[in-house]
Q: What sequence folds into this?
């Protein structure tokens, strides 16, 4: 059986002056389609490094990383950017929205880079995605006209624009109140049931409880893998 993500003996070492810091110290794991995975651990545990490498935002010092059967550990920055645009979606703690841009235009951005759809088809898909995340009545609003929870919904719709099989979320509820956090996590749960693999970094147990698998990191090592 082929896995969507397969990493073997993944290592990431940083040099700080005379000292070597082992952010990842030999991690091996597989993740399949439709899984909702929470990566957990204290600050400095390696969870963010893990997310960055899995999301093709960084490369490992050594080890193997197969994404949908493709070895990506030794790819160039240009190749990694192409893989991200085609296969991966990202949701960040700070939303990363353009301040004076309407919601529908924010969502269109990934396809503007890819050039996959016509202008009309791109707008149509963006509107459908905003409807999907519950913002059908906010398509012309800018970030300043929306709550934090609504901004994060725009970011999720944008992450889905290119139909990625994997969605990465880095502390996606870190700037949200409890009610908005639960709404966002319920949306992730629905997306997971629709077949999207979700890999989320969080330090909050109640947020991690929405995931059906928990990978716990400590000192650059995977110490627990719970389903």
A:
């Amino acid at each position: 059986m082929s896995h969507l993500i397969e990493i073997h003996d993944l290592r990431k070492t940083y040099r700080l002056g005379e000292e070597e810091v082992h952010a990842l110290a030999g991690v091996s794991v597989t993740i399949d389609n439709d899984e909702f995975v929470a990566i957990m651990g204290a600050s400095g545990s390696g969870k963010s490094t893990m997310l960055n490498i899995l999301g093709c935002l960084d490369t490992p010092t050594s080890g193997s990383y197969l994404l949908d059967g493709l070895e990506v550990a030794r790819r160039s920055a240009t190749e990694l950017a192409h893989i991200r645009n085609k296969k991966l979606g990202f949701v960040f703690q700070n939303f990363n929205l353009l301040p004076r841009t309407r919601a529908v235009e924010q969502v269109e951005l990934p396809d503007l880079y890819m050039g996959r759809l016509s202008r009309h088809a791109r707008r149509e898909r963006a509107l459908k995605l905003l409807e999907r995340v519950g913002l059908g009545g906010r398509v012309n609003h800018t970030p300043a006209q929306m709550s934090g929870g609504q901004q994060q919904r725009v970011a999720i719709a944008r992450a889905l624009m290119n139909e990625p099989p994997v969605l990465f979320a880095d502390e996606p509820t870190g700037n949200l109140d409890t009610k908005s956090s639960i709404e966002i996590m319920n949306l992730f749960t629905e997306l997971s049931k629709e077949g999207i693999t979700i890999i989320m970094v969080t330090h909050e147990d109640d947020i991690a409880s929405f995931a059906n698998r928990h990978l716990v990191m400590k000192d650059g090592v995977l110490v627990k893998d719970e389903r």
Summary: The chain has one domain: 34-59+76-226. The chain is about 35% helix and 30% strand.
